[in-house]
Amino acid sequence: MARRAALAAGVVTGVLVLGAGGYVAADAYDLVPGFLTLEPVPDPPQPFPTIPGAVEAPELEPVLSEADPSAPVPDAAELTALAEAAADHVWMGDSVGIVVADQLTGEVLVDLDGDQPHVPASTAKVATGAAVLSALGPDATLTTSVVQGPGGRLVLVGGGDVMLAAGAGDPEATNGRAGLADLAAEVARQLRLAGVTEVTLGVDDTLFSGPQAAPGWGEDVISLGFVAPVTALAVNIAKTRDEPYPPRHADPSLHAGETLAGLLREQGVVVTGSVGREVAPAGARTVGTVESAPLREVVRYALHTSDNTVTEVLGRMVAVERGLPGSFQGATRAVLAELGRLGLDTDGAALADTSGLADGSLLSPALLVDLVLHAADPQNAALLPAAVDLPVAGWQGTLEDRLGQSPARGLVRAKTGSLPGVTSLAGTVVTPSGRSLVFAVIADDTPPGGQLGPRRVIDTFVQQLAGCGCDLPR
């Protein structure tokens, strides 16, 4: 655990800042939840009238403010006593790991079975998010294209974007940034220029390989909508209706191809025959492309919504970027290898998939804490979204309805994890004196009865961290 202090040197606090003035300014004026307010986020104000010819202000980028090294570090003995009480609770079962570290120095303040691998559930998504940001970069986008081969045959080529809109793309959205209607319009324009009015259409999703469902997934996870078959392209994450866990299209790639065929017909292009799978011919001419949202936004979406399908795609993109097969086996190997490339100790770690949904994954609380520390290090700017884009307690994503009371509300950023018998939480918390801590809690042998009990214990522990007076003068 001593290695944690070295990689955390120069780490900054996990507080979202908007531009140079930062989160502190926005917080002070009650614009966002945080240090100085626990009020709900207000409705956005009506925009000011636009002055003709006025230059719009540039968009503000999230950054991290520098930590105050003078803020006192909590007493390790008192934090350990709180952690032991949580770990010993009957609702947590007999297999619990807890690590708490100081974010500024990396000093480990609590270590209860921290180096022992545990089933991470969806906290594994932090590892996948960091890996794809490291391998491809936060500004990378995923391209969906249509190419034209011999005889005028069109092929829709998947590039990993499973968040395509069935209609026009929305430049403000993450899910739906790229639209098949826009792609159809561009393809139709190119065909008209070439004097082509009739085509056939196929789909190439060979960027990914192997089975579309992980061996460790139960038979019902797809039918219940927890995940879609993993393919290289899909419309709206293969949802058949717009809700968190709807039934999914059995073949997302072919559904995307059929959707494009209908949109081409609306553009006046005659599409004959049925849409089938094929490999795009080498040297085929590209006649249209659309781009996904930047990966930083896709990672944020996956972390906020805990979307299994999007995360599995991100893992495959790491594999493809590193020259491995775009399969479950390639993705899991690639994500762990990328963490090792970042200097993290993955000894004992194992991934059965990259979303945490399958049986067989093992990550230690110590590795999760090291990962968040590493992502918050200013020397690792590409990884920053893996630290600052975790859901905020009482405000966002899977923490919107958790930790919503003072003192934790607005001061905890964390990724949740839930499987039968497993409850986990990993992220950052700010103490009353302003010291930022990184924590990971995994209970992976909880008694029957569901998530309510262990979640209540873990949330109470995090509330105690957020309200701990053990770093204040006596």
Structural write-up:
It is a single chain. This protein is α+β, with helices and mostly antiparallel strands and 474 residues long. It folds into 2 domains: 3-42 and 58-137 and 298-467, DD-peptidase/beta-lactamase superfamily (Beta-lactamase); 143-293, D-tyrosyl-trna(Tyr) Deacylase, Chain: A. It has 12 helices and 14 strands. The strands form 4 sheets. A 5-stranded antiparallel beta sheet has the order 4-3-14-13-12, with helices on both faces. Strands 10-8-6-5-11 form a 5-stranded mixed beta sheet, with helices on one face. A hairpin with a 5-residue loop joins strand 5 (143-148) and strand 6 (154-157). Its EC number is 3.4.16.4. One of its GO terms (molecular function) is serine-type D-Ala-D-Ala carboxypeptidase activity. This is D-alanyl-D-alanine carboxypeptidase/D-alanyl-D-alanine-endopeptidase. Keywords: Carboxypeptidase, Hydrolase, Protease. InterPro entries: Beta-lactam/transpept-like (IPR012338), Peptidase_S13 (IPR000667).
**Number of DSSP-assigned strands:** 14
SSE class = alpha+beta
Q: In CATH terms, what is the fold-level topology of the largest domain?
A: Beta-lactamase
Low-confidence stretches: 1-65
EC number: 3.4.16.4
Family: Belongs to the peptidase S13 family.
Keywords: Carboxypeptidase, Hydrolase, Protease
GO biological process, one term: peptidoglycan metabolic process
